[in-house]
Amino acid sequence: MYILQSILAACLLALCTAEPPVNNQYLPPTSNGYNYPSPNVPFPSPPAPQTPGPFRPPPPPAPRPPAPPAPRPTYGVPTGPPAPPRPTYGPPQTPQGSNNNIETAHLNQPHVPGMPYDFNYAVKDDYYGTDYSHNAVSDGDQVKGEYRVQLPDGRLQIVSYVADWATGFHADVRYEGQASYPEANKGGYPAAGAPAAAYGPPPSQGY
Q1: CATH code at 125?
Q2: By CB atoms within 10 Å of each CB, which of 21, 120, 145, 174 scores lowest?
Q3: Range from 29-33, 37-41, 70-74, 161-165 carrying the lowest mean pLDDT
Q4: Could you tell me the residue range of the domain that residue 161 belongs to?
């Protein structure tokens, strides 16, 4: 019994000498850490709610303006076919101081002699009856030449010519031989009573 009382007394003494209990209650801080000054302009107060009034229908639409009158036609029935346009052309007008003769107009231009040349060729084909030749000689100012052609009628056509820058081209045409023509074709319809030609399928070729 005595031992039990001693243990109980020791426990009470220990409780009295122990640390005081901790206060777990959190308190707000004395300062929030911000030192911003308050604004000089006060915040606007929200508008007061409006009391709904009686319902009013929307106003009627404005009337449309009247349509403009339709334009009157300005055309009419044609009185007749249109007249053909009058010609505006006329005879050509020759400028003053120009040469009226076109063939001799080049005489007013300075003459530049050409390059002298001399050539000749001939073609003769008895199978097809082709026979022609040509030869010419030029000293740069004047050309002299001749060409021959065997015509289908049997004649030989010979053309001798002279050409120069001042007077142009001059030709002399002559023919040799006598023209001959084949006999006329004695065709036509068969005489009366002649046997008519018999037409039929071709003979078989064995295909």
Answers
A1: 2.20.25
A2: 21
A3: 29-33
A4: 117-176
